[in-house]
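For homework, think about our next protein:
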Amino acid sequence: MGPNTRRLYLRLRPVIGVLAFVAVVIQFVPYGWERSNPPLGDPIRWPSTEVERVARAACYDCHSNETRWPIYSYVAPLSWLVRNDVESGRRELNFSEWDDFESEADDAAEEIIVGSMPPSNYVRLHPGAALNQVEKRLLIDAFNEIDESD
């Protein structure tokens, strides 16, 4: 270790110590600890198994009671972000309680059309959730079919 590197290390050591201490302490903040999957209500009936497969890969972690909780959802502050995303996703649209959300089918199709679903930050961490044009069309058509059957 050269003299400049050593000097930098000595200056950064207290900062690194404080950051490590904060990282440990925030693990004890209770928000984000609960990672529940409530019981299924009246789940959506997809028009085909292919549409269901696409929806499960791209949507279900945030928009159902069948969330897969990744390892990073157990570590603050990421656990706070994941829990918030899941809670707000379920409030907006929940495929596990479809009777309460059936009227949202048109909005769900629109979100896919404009490209806001699935969100890019989710797709970065879950590349299997990225929708190609065929998959987008499958979901949009399914939501339009559901909306017309109301």
